[in-house]
Design brief:
Elements lengths: L3 H23 L8 H7 L6 H12 L2 H8 L8 H23 L5 H9 L2 H35 L5 H49 L30 H12 L1 H8 L4 H17 L1 H16 L6 H9 L2 H38 L6 H19 L9 H25 E2 L3 H22 L5 H22 L6 E2 L2 H4 L3
Antiparallel strand pairs: 1-2
């Protein structure tokens, strides 16, 4: 039976975050008359504190806390440790370029480098496919699963997911990026604090004694049968991180909303520090402790551990922070998806001067309905985080190849790159769903990336009669 105090704390803190976000946004500085800049870049007014907070919590949600702890092994921390490298590359390589080219979306950089709006639209379309059909429904599913297991709710998952989606959409629709970033930051402070408490309590529950846990669950050196074999860290892993942290609109949009490069870089590096010092512990240690307490229970581990170890009022507080994490991650992806659609597709092909508020509302609602409908599709996954990483390969490496080719080379025809991206997506789909080379899927991602770049350069020469050359260093660095 649900504890009334637990529910009271949960709803109280959820309301408090909403009110604090409203108050901060209401008293924010000057707002831009440019609707795109106001809705999608917070008028360029995000300080480093909110850039760091929003980047941290946009990524950190139930698919990380539930999914990664569901692996119940230390090895999974490599995703977060490698992310630090991705954030550093964003700070020192990509941020100056985005600001140099005055980008609203990451894909706008492609249009300006290739001189072609169609490649911008193609890559934006791929990002939207990933957001709407992978990220949004998985966030709703994992958040709903956590709440259901923690509170012992008898409600259907689809109903809980719908409630999350409605509240999350309200932030994105009515407040734009400003409200999303502020709520991310306030929620992030609470979530990280509560997650560290769970780490301590989970270790205390096993008397800080890891004996009896199989060695393969405590190692950072994965063998060939593990989710992350050690040699994958030397091949596709770094490129996965570059794609996610440096070209993914959901992440980079926060950094592009700072007043200048220095403020953006400070926020990104702060997020990298949080990722290095805090996040690996909170996504791995509770799952390992849960293995000793309950055995191999997969994605249910984190919710059961929190429900058992935290007293009623504290579990209510933690649930509020987890709900906030779901909401902020959901509304962040929703906001970035609307940004991509409005700026890269609608304004380029349908109406150059739309009513941004109305268009943002309509398209966001369409994405929300689609995400809710897809929640049942992911309910049978053995490991949600491994499924996410594997599905990412369908889009991540082909998309990253377009950025690498456009920045490293010049005189490349956009049509050649578009064809190579389509071919690369098909190649990875073949690897995943038919039969691929007998190597780990992270190695396969590197194969796809190289294939796309080589194909683009070959098609550029054979089909369009152009010979690519290396970009000048000052162009590459955006200086």
């Amino acid at each position: 039976m649900t504890d009334p105090l637990q529910l009271a704390v949960f709803f109280g803190l959820t309301l408090l975050i909403g009110l604090a976000t409203w108050w901060k946004c209401r008293h924010s500085g000057d707002r831009s008359t440019d609707s795109n800049k106001e809705y999608f870049l917070a008028s360029g007014g995000l300080s480093w504190f909110f850039v760091a907070g929003s980047i941290t919590l946009t990524n950190l949600s139930t698919d990380q806390l539930v999914g990664m702890n569901g692996n119940q092994m230390l090895l999974i921390a490599w995703w977060e440790l490698a992310a630090v490298a991705g954030l550093i590359i964003l700070a020192f390589v990509f941020i100056p370029i985005y600001y140099r080219y005055e980008c609203t979306t990451t894909t706008e950089l492609l249009e300006k480098r290739y001189g072609n709006k169609h490649i911008r639209a193609t890559i934006a379309g791929l990002f939207l496919l990933g957001n709407v059909f992978i990220y949004l429904p998985i966030m709703l599913y994992t958040g709903s699963l956590f709440m259901k297991s923690m509170f012992g709710l008898e409600l259907p998952l689809i109903l809980i997911a719908s409630l999350f989606a409605i509240v999350g959409a309200a932030y994105a629709i009515f407040g734009g990026l400003r409200a999303v970033a502020v709520s991310d930051t306030y929620s992030g402070i609470g979530l990280l604090t509560m997650a560290l408490i769970v780490v301590y309590l989970s270790l205390a529950a096993i008397d800080f004694d890891l004996s009896g846990i199989p060695a393969d669950r405590l190692t950072l050196i994965g063998d060939n049968a593990s989710p992350i074999p050690w040699h994958t860290l030397l091949t596709g892993m770094i490129f996965i991180q570059i794609f996610y942290w440096s070209t993914n609109q959901t992440i980079t949009q926060r950094a592009m909303a700072a007043p200048n490069v220095g403020e953006a870089r400070k926020g990104v590096l702060t997020a990298a520090g949080i990722r290095l010092l805090i996040v690996p512990a909170i996504i791995a240690i509770p799952g390992i402790a849960a293995f000793k307490l309950y055995g191999d229970i997969g994605d249910a581990a984190y919710g059961q551990l929190v429900g058992d170890l935290l007293p009623g009022w504290m579990s209510g507080a933690f649930a509020a922070m987890m709900a906030a994490a779901v909401l902020t991650s959901f509304n962040s992806v929703l906001n970035s998806s609307a940004t991509l659609y409005v700026c890269d597709l609608h304004e380029k092909y349908i109406d150059a001067t739309p009513n941004v508020h109305r268009m943002n509302t309509v398209i966001s609602l369409g994405f929300v309905v689609t995400a809710i409908a897809l929640v049942p599709v992911y309910s049978g996954a053995d490991s949600i985080i491994n499924l996410v990483q594997q599905l990412n390969g369908l889009l991540s490496m082909p998309i990253l190849s377009a950025f690498i080719t456009g920045l490293v080379f010049r005189n490349v025809d956009a049509r050649a790159v578009i064809i190579s991206v389509v071919l690369g997506t098909g190649l990875y789909a073949t690897f995943t769903f038919v039969k691929g080379p007998p190597v780990h899927y992270i190695h396969q991602m590197l194969i796809v990336l190289i294939f796309c770049i080589v194909s683009a350069l070959a098609l550029n020469f054979t089909m369009y009669g152009k010979r690519a050359s290396l970009s000048r260093r000052e162009v590459l660095l955006g200086t």
